[in-house]
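ok here's the first one, seq then struct tokens
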Amino acid sequence: MKAFVLAGGLGTRLKPRFGDLPKALAPVAGRPFLAKPLEWLASFGIREVVMCAGYGAAQLKESLGDGSAFGVHLAWSEEDRPLGTGGALRLAASHLDGPALVLNGDTIAECDPWALERARWESGSLGAVALFEVPDARSRGRVEIDGGRVARFVEKDDAFSSRLWRHLPAGTSSLERDVLPGLAREGRIAGLQSPGTFYDIGTPEEWERAESRFAS
């Protein structure tokens, strides 16, 4: 399984703290945040990673190199203009060669990616979403599950069949808002409740939570 990491975000809410640094490079425990999800992938034997980069792509490349420092091999797909998460994945289609794990470069979802892919495969679904219980879901949304399938969708880590790419529209699109909700209504997305913890550094408060966890 190959991983696609969406790392084109501007990080507007973190600018007061980190300036123009790409959000995925915000330091956590003295290292670029992206080091965490890359090492997490490597720990599960997922070593082929496609970085879907946009804003700050040059800085990302300079910081991450070929990925060997984190136990992975990085390939790059670069936007020349913002395309959204769906558009970024469509642009990276040439790297697709089988089942894919899709994750955001500013999150760490502590789950087993192979269990997620197994849930997708065993249910015959187009994709599977890792679900986490959090104290306050207002900034992330909620998921309703019906018979092990997602009835309403929210952004999390996902395992997909390569057939998902057929549903990505041309141009700019959001995977979370424009693609997955419709597939969920059709019963084509499985949900897997995960016992781990979900970290998202999209806000200063959540960055501080991750810093406290990983710096200890």
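and now the second one, same deal
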Amino acid sequence: MHSAKEAAGRALTAAQKEQFVHQGLVKLENAFPQDVAAEARAILWRATGCDPEDTTTWTKPVIRLGDFPQEPFRMAVNTPLLHATFDELVGPGRWVPRQSLGGFPIRFPHRNDPGDTGWHIDASFPPDRPVEGSYFDWRVNVRSKGRALLMLFLFSDVGENDAPTRIRLGSHLSTAKLLAPAGEEGLSMMEISSAAASATKGMPVTTATGAAGTVFLCHPFLMHAAQPHRGVKPRFLAQPPLVPAAPLELARSDGSYSLVEKAILLGLDGKAIHLN
């Protein structure tokens, strides 16, 4: 893994850009300050209703929390390093700044299976027609409507035993090819996750480990999965999307493709496509 230098406005190295396009992710160490992570953890602990000093209150393997707009979260997602990297990956002016961090699956050491460890791709937009169901009915299309990046923000130190997110390196390329025939309508989260899980089986796997303040910026088509917590301290992680300011384009007349778009085109064998 390559890690970014802790410096405002520092662009990604050539090796990191290559890694993002071909493997689907870049790891940024010290992407936000550890004291900010500590302030955020205190807020999250209160939201869980659990006592950090009393393990008997840790009664569930995972607690899911929603959006958090407090200052530590706004600070974490708006550092100069992250903004510069968003520009490198998505393109200047092509992403929407976040003012909060949402989607916190807090994982606890627990003997019970969490029941949510399947390989999947996060959905990006709701279906056109109302359906009976849930987030699993949301959709993904080849232009990744509604999502420019999948982001993993580590708010606690995460080692190999602390339920780090599993990631199939290079799986985003296979996903792009699977999504292309479905056009703008795309596929449901369940449909694409099932197809991509089969297509990417056996690909090399890495885990999202690191110190608090580490951020993994991932291609939105990257296959990933949770796992049970085998450590001793709960894992605090946010997994928000970076929202595009405009739809991704796969047939730019001026060739000014972002790295996210270049990765999709690589998955499509370098072919620009036009969608109706």
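notes on #2: The chain has a mean pLDDT of 92. The domain at 32-267 is CATH 2.60.120 (Jelly Rolls).
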